[in-house]
Model the fold of this input.
Amino acid sequence: GGLDFSVPIKEYFMDPVTGQGNIDTLVNLTGFSLVGGPASQDAKAAKDVLMRLNRPYLVSVPLVFQSFTEWQESELGLHPVQVALQVALPEIDGAIEPLIYAGRDGTSGRSIPMQDRINALATRALNWSKLRKK
Done:
């Protein structure tokens, strides 16, 4: 689907007969909005597919514009460009609880998963699933 993630959501996460979501929680780790990516976001299309899916939609992103250390030491927190592209746009789609799951190494530039953050994301996803079922 390119940068239109609504297509695989419909194909893989919705029951073909009932049209209902067949997952408990949707977690987006791409760093992009649900439909269109950062350059051509389509919040209306994202809203439509999320309303049909009717499941909690969490977004988790890797640090892109700053290293893990820069992020920790920054008085501003997350770089403003990353906030706009990878937090605000997905929230316009309907995402909840954005969370950093990986940090960029200051020397090599490699993305390094942060296990404590991944555990926190898994816990949040599980808690939203339980809440949805209640």
User: Anything to note?
Assistant: The mean pLDDT is 88. Helices lie at 6-13, 43-53, 68-73, 80-93, 115-133. Strands lie at 26-28, 57-67, 96-104, 111-113.
